């Protein structure tokens, strides 16, 4: 329970004004709980879609805008901040040390702003496409953020730290890496299997797991090459980018 509460406290905007223990088992539990927190965020986004489309009666585009806004609000923009910082750092075309300095800079630059705008526009377009197709949205809205965060756990577990400071360094020092990695793989496979059963499809879960594995491998290689390892901002960028790829894969498959 402490792990789940920590995941809500650190990775959402839901206020939990309580000092929780942060021993190894608690931090490991926090990351193991993170995909479930993602699934709950997806459930809330689905509820917004139902509210606007089925109850208020708006069009799919307006509904998609509010669905994406709900997701941003529930995470406090945490992962999008990481995506923007990663855009600023990478497109600076500076050396590795300078890129890490840019990641730590709380200000947003032109490339970060453009990356953020592009991300939001693409996510709105993908959600609108799904709503417009009138497919069964509930399992998809739960599975995509769940899988993206499970993949992030594997990426975080298997990648060395880019810097010896920061929140990622603090958490990884208190993490049971093997337990987290194995648990996250099992959770991702189980979620994909359940999704396949619900959708009566073998193709969708296979493709989603393939996209997830490819994202983790390629982003890990890219992170090591350009940043020397993983950081909190890069983890946020991974979640946002992988969600987009998973949504796109679903649209292509269904």
Question: What labels would you give this structure?
Answer:
single chain, mainly alpha, 254 residues, globular
Describe the structure.
It is a single chain. The chain has 254 residues and is mainly alpha-helical. It is 80% helix and 0% strand. α2 runs antiparallel to α3, α3 crosses α6 and α7 packs antiparallel against α9. The N and C termini lie far apart (36 Å).
What's the quick description here?
With 254 residues, the chain is mostly helical. It has helices at 2-11, 24-56, 60-75, 78-90, 96-104, 110-133, 138-158, 167-172, 177-199, 203-227, 232-253.
Structural class: mainly alpha
**Overall spatial form:** globular
User: Major sheet, described briefly?
Assistant: none
Give the termini separation.
36 Å
Residues in β-strands, percent: under 5%
Low-confidence stretches: none
The residue-averaged pLDDT reads: 93
For the CA atoms, what is the radius of gyration?
A: 18 Å
- How many strand segments? 0
The helix count comes to 11
How would you describe the oligomerization state of the chains in this entry?
A: single chain
Share of residues in helices: over 70%
């Amino acid at each position: 329970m402490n792990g789940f509460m920590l995941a809500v406290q650190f990775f959402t905007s839901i206020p939990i004004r309580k000092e929780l223990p942060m021993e190894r088992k608690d931090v490991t539990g926090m990351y193991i709980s993170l995909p479930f927190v993602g699934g709950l965020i997806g459930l809330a986004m689905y509820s917004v879609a139902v509210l606007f489309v089925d109850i208020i009666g708006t069009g799919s585009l307006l509904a998609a805008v509010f669905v994406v806004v709900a997701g941003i609000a529930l995470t406090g923009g945490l992962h999008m901040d990481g995506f923007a910082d990663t855009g600023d750092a990478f497109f600076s075309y500076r050396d590795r040390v300078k890129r890490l300095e840019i990641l730590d800079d709380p200000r947003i630059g032109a490339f970060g702003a453009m990356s953020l705008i592009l991300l939001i526009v693409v996510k709105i377009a993908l959600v609108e496409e799904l709503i417009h197709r009138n497919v069964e949205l509930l399992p998809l809205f739960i599975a995509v953020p769940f899988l993206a965060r499970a993949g992030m756990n594997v990426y975080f577990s298997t990648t060395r730290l880019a810097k010896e400071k920061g929140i990622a360094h603090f958490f990884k020092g208190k993490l049971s890496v093997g337990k987290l990695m194995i648990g996250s793989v099992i959770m991702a496979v189980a979620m994909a299997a359940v999704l396949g059963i619900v959708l009566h499809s073998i193709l969708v879960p296979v493709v989603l797991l393939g996209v997830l594995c490819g994202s983790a491998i390629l982003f890990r290689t890219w992170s090591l090459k350009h940043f020397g390892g993983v950081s909190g901002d890069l983890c946020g960028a991974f979640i946002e980018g992988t969600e987009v790829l998973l949504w796109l894969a679903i649209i292509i498959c269904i």
